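Structure tokens please, single chain.
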Amino acid sequence: MPSRFIYHAQDLAFLIFHSWLKLRWTPSSKTWLMRLDRTIRSRISHKNSADWVQVNHGGKVLDIWTVKVEGDVQGSVPLVIMHGMGGGANMFLNNIDDLAEQRDVILLDLPGFGLSSRPDLRVKYENGWWVDTSADDVEEFYTEVLEQWFQKLCLDKVILLGHSYGGYLSSVYCLKYPDRVKHLILADPWGFPQRPAAADMRPFMRNKALVLLSKLYGKMNIFTPLRVLGPLALPLFRICKLGLKTLFIVKLSGSTEDSADLIERQKLLRQDGLHVFPNTTMQDYCYMWMMHSQSGEVGFSRVSIPFGWARKPLVERVQAWDSKLDVTFIYGARSWIDSQPGLETKNQRHDNYVDVHIISGAGHHVYADRPKAFNHIVQMIGEAIDESRRPNISHEFEQRHLAMSSLRRRSSCASQAELLNDEAGIRQPRALSAHELAEMVESDSQSSNEEDNVGTSGRVMFSLDDVPAEKEHKTQTVLSGLEELSMRRERKSSFRSQPAAVMKNVKFSTEDNNEGSQRSEFQTD
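Here you go.
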């Protein structure tokens, strides 16, 4: 009875707290954000814990919110994940359990985002004056803070995965501390391409009102318009972030039958490793940390120029990466991020390992749009690192596509089942051995040679070795019937099929009769 009373008292206090929160212009709080964080992390199957890790920078103590997920295999190289702009550590909910099957997974809220501290990145104290920070200052801040964070967690060697803005910061970190990173995975990274010289010459930039509005918005931070809207921001944000519904959310209906169907669908999705929420949990999670003090977005404004271009493009600095650093780019085929800089990086570092993958059907949030395909690539990279070798995933995919093309030529039911179970050529039920691949390549070459011989000789040979014994007599009867039919057709003579020697005696004559008509006749000897 007392525990039940305490439970209802907590709900009542939370309700009163939310009622007071609605009186604020921007309804957000760190307490509400922590409650949402616990709700989301409760969907993780693996054992996990979250706490703040304290680091010191510029004489100030910063708290970095860190989520540790214990993997099934101990002793392997841990995976560190850095979120992008407008996201948080829990955005990788649909990836954590699959990735934790091989190794420990560590996620963090970058300083200025989520539940981490929000330092002032707008100005700095220099020579007795407060001056504006620059792109170099912001990059140095994140690089040194991340290095201290790695030291506090005793992470000597890691696989570093960064998405979007997190990919930019992880790339900058590897410019100074490459020895700590065994492999750098950049998921749809921001900040690589150069700003085109003709960016301001686009037709819509000729509109004076649009130019004025763009200049005004260029002076703001990204989430300033949401803060200006105040209490209208949350419902508007839920509408604008409808894309999250397809990734994490299933709408809950009021009827009991619909609720039962929803629970059943959620069970099926969880079996596939996908987590869903019957409300706006993920939308509220993103909204809560966006409405806090402006810190991370201020740092982003320092390293970027309108609109969305990097002030110091990374494609100009990839040559400064250490030659031992292995890099893998993972792009979404439907993303607004251009994959061309990844290919340019591969060309510039042709003597080093750089691999580029484009996942079909995925957008900017490639890890959430196609989680299984994304997880499979990351797992293959991790397996190669644990075996002290380079992944060489592109070569394996080429061999796999070659094997799949061989399977498509076969008519067996087993091959068709393998094709149906395959995930767009990225994942198949079992890995083909080198011997099987070699046999398939050899069979392809033999089949191509036979096709060439058919074109030269004009004769096609069929083998009936696979015909069962009980059907052999029936097959022979059918073949004999076909031969007799062909012989009858040869005996038939027609006017068109007569040889030229016979046709030479054909006589044609045309006579005009009295009625003005013509009469034609021909004779054959």
